[in-house]
Amino acid sequence: MYSFNSYLHKLSEESGISFSLKCEAEGINFNSLTNETVSTFIFEVALGHNIGRISLPNNVKSCTALLKFSIENKYEELISRSENCIINFLEGKEVSADIADTNFPFITKGCILYLVSVDKNRTEVLEMIRELYEEQEVVCFLYGEYILVLGVLEEENEHAESIRDIIASNLFANSSIAYGNSFNASIYIKRAYEEAKIALFLGKRFGLNKEIYSYNAMIFERIVYGINDDLKKEILFSYKKKFDCFDNEINTTVANFIDCQMNISLAAKKLYVHRNTLIYRLDKIKKDTGLDLRLFNEAAIFIIAFLIWKEEKYKTSE
User: Fold this and answer.
1) What is the residue extent of each domain of the chain?
2) pLDDT, greater one: 136 or 305
3) Per-residue model confidence as pLDDT tens digits over 122-148
4) 205 — phi, psi (to 5°)?
């Protein structure tokens, strides 16, 4: 929305016409009207598949047609064209370098692509994300079952957390957000999309129950997914009965201990238990499985076996 909002400011300043434009579905809320403006005229403009409403002072009502034409055409040029350009990349269609550079002049600064999956109110979530990044170089739109967000956003995980928090606090909706490697050329948009999509898929397949997934942080999951079926069956045969006996408390302990990089103090804090309680649980896991999660080599074997077991549970539940 960065370029379009900039255009609205420029249009208002250069024409000398104050107006407001609001379109909730597109996350647009521009206003150059002053408090002195008393009487206004309201008319509609088409913004993609949605309708925006413009408030215009009655004394410049004659400018309605020109303003409507200028705004609708610029929106089509800056927004819809950008979305279509990204979609062309995702669908493997040929896009010239000139068109890509025109639509994404900011991409050379280093971009990140997020896929946001929500269980309800996708249009409202899209609106909130657009409002969050209203003044930044960000493009976001609905694509398939996801909301796609692409822009120059450093500290990738912090932005993912910000998106998650506004969804949870405003709509009380469940969300999953994934992202891959950053990139500085439009030819890598499809790769970044595929990485984020894989991260979401693996998160579901291995029942990770997280809200944010980083492709680069899921090396174990990617390795396990690529193990041939015969070896998976062999590993599962050795540990299935042991893992089947785990209750929710132990499963939660394992997930959090691994997530905290096997740091006892951090994991105990995250689990809201005393350090000694966590040590007791780890000792119990060692007794039941023969693997000590505090030792790197044994923890690696445990994680691989545990992920295979969770994957098997997912497949049987389909």
Assistant:
1) 2-83, 104-215, 227-317
2) 305
3) 888 988 898 888 778 888 888 889 999
4) -65, -35
d(CA 120, CA 114): 18
> Is CATH 1.10.10.2840 the classification given to domain 227-317?
yes
Nearest CA to 26 out of 66, 82, 70, 69 is that of: 82
Whose CA is closest to 78, among 33, 141, 120?
141
Q: Which residues contact 249 (CB under 8 A, 6 or more apart)?
A: 281
pLDDT at 131: 84
pTM comes to 0.74
Contact by Cβ (8 Å): 143, 189: no
Q: How much is the average pLDDT of 100-126?
A: 86
DSSP state of 34: -
Q: What percent of the chain has pLDDT over 90?
A: 53
Task: State the Cα–Cα distance between residues 92 and 318, nearest whole angstrom.
Answer: 30
Residue 128, φ and ψ in degrees, nearest 5: -65, -40
Two tokens, residue 40 = 């206004």
Q: What is the mean pLDDT of the chain?
A: 88
Is residue 45 within 8 Å of residue 79, measured between CB atoms? no
Task: Fold for 104-215, please state it.
Answer: Alpha-Beta Plaits (3.30.70)
